[in-house]
Specification:
Elements: H1 3-6, H2 10-23, E1 26-36, E2 39-49, E3 54-57, E4 64-67, E5 71-74, H3 82-91, H4 93-99, E6 107-115, E7 120-128
Antiparallel strand pairs: 1-2, 1-6, 2-3, 4-5, 6-7
Length: about 140
Amino acid sequence: MSTALRDLSAQEVKNKGYRALKKRDAVKAVIHFSGGHDDGSPESIVLTKTDGTKETIKEHYQPSTYVEGKGFVREPYPEDVREDAELAEILVRPIYDRYGSFAGDFYVTGTCTWDVINRLVTVSDRTEVPSYYNEEIDW
């Protein structure tokens, strides 16, 4: 995630997301995601346009370079993917805010929906915890 986006509040990210979706003539975005056990990510990002058509966008790897004394510094996205990459980065923020790196003994699947008309972002999920946490053990 870019430093500039990471420094924004949740409300600022929402406002930025709504503006970006309106610019793309989208009324809704649905992001399917899954993960757990230290690995997870969005699987698909689908925009629904005002005319009902769908557009799929994807996350893009943001290159970084190691700079002595600063660590890894993110480089700008390549021009040919910048618009999609920056929009995807905004749209997946609620997922990463909720699940971080998906670390832990759980598995989750769900959707994050951006409703532009009602200005509402919802995350719906189903979480599974390994059964050994619910078993009684005789010592």
